[in-house]
């Protein structure tokens, strides 16, 4: 590791000032610190957001859940409010990484990083959530913009995410045993207005699948999902799996997710 200054602002305003002055915001550190060790990132200042109480908390607001950006994965998984109102989200959080990652990783950090194989972005996109920052609100459909890319501007911080509550929802993934990231993950959420389906791990970023959404909006059954052809032309091929294999996984996991949501 190299020399850098470590700061712990006590409020969101203080954190924003330090970030504006050039400090790199540190949430759970599950990606940033590893990147620093590998010299892929070399910030001279870190601003630890752990002391900003404005970024914490989980509460139900009408027909939605508002979760603070600094909520740890383990907190989301254990929250009675999340378990009661959005059990699929609690389940997703309970299966991220390993115990150490869940104890330190944060919702806001994961969403801001937008790793193409992260679990949380699929829940945010499938539920049509709203990403709340220090200056505005961004719809999930506008937020994720490809590989490690989001709509966040320089110096902008996520403060919370507001999740609409689906009628039924479930998340299924096939986990890479070494990294614990999903080889493919599928989040299915049913609303009165229709079904939203978000895929992670299969492409250059999280994305919705129009074919599955149309089929499941017409008939929310595993059979309807099974009848959708999954095009592999834009999917990833790497040492872990071919694009064709990932396409098959999308179909299989979508069927499992719907069955789980109906159980």
UniProtKB/TrEMBL annotation:
Provenance organism: Xenophilus arseniciresistens
The source's domain of life comes to Bacteria
- SUPFAM superfamilies from the xrefs? CO dehydrogenase flavoprotein C-terminal domain-like, FAD-binding/transporter-associated domain-like
| Keyword field | FAD, Flavoprotein, Oxidoreductase
Q: Which InterPro entries match?
A: CO_DH_flav_C, CO_DH_flav_C_dom_sf, Diverse_Substr_Oxidored, FAD-bd_PCMH, FAD-bd_PCMH-like_sf, FAD-bd_PCMH_sub1, FAD-bd_PCMH_sub2, Mopterin_DH_FAD-bd
UniProt name for this protein: Xanthine dehydrogenase family protein subunit M
Any single GO molecular-function term of the entry would be: FAD binding
Span of domain FAD-binding PCMH-type: 1-168
């Amino acid at each position: 590791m190299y020399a850098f200054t470590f700061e712990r602002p006590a409020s969101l305003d203080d954190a924003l000032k330090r970030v504006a002055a050039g400090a790199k915001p540190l949430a759970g550190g599950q990606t940033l610190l590893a990147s620093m060790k590998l010299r892929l990132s070399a910030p001279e200042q870190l601003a630890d957001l752990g002391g900003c109480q404005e970024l914490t908390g989980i509460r139900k607001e009408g027909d939605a859940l508002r979760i603070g950006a600094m909520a740890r994965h383990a907190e989301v998984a254990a929250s009675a409010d999340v378990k009661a109102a959005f059990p699929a989200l609690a389940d997703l959080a309970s299966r991220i990484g390993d115990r150490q990652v869940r104890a330190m990783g944060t919702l806001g950090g994961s969403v801001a990083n937008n790793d193409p194989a992260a679990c949380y972005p699929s829940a945010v996109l499938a539920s049509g959530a709203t990403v709340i920052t220090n200056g505005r609100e961004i719809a999930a459909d506008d937020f994720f913009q490809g590989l490690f890319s989001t709509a966040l501007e320089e110096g902008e911080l996520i403060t919370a995410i507001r999740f609409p509550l689906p009628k039924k929802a479930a998340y299924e993934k096939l986990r890479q045993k070494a990294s614990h990231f999903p080889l493919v993950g599928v989040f299915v959420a049913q609303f009165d207005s229709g079904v939203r389906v978000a895929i992670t791990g299969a492409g250059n970023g999280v994305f919705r699948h129009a074919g599955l959404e149309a089929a499941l909006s017409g008939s929310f059954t595993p059979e309807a999902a099974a009848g959708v052809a999954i095009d592999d032309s834009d999917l990833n091929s790497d040492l872990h799996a071919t694009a064709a294999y990932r396409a098959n996984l999308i179909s299989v996991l979508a069927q499992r997710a719907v069955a789980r949501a109906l159980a």
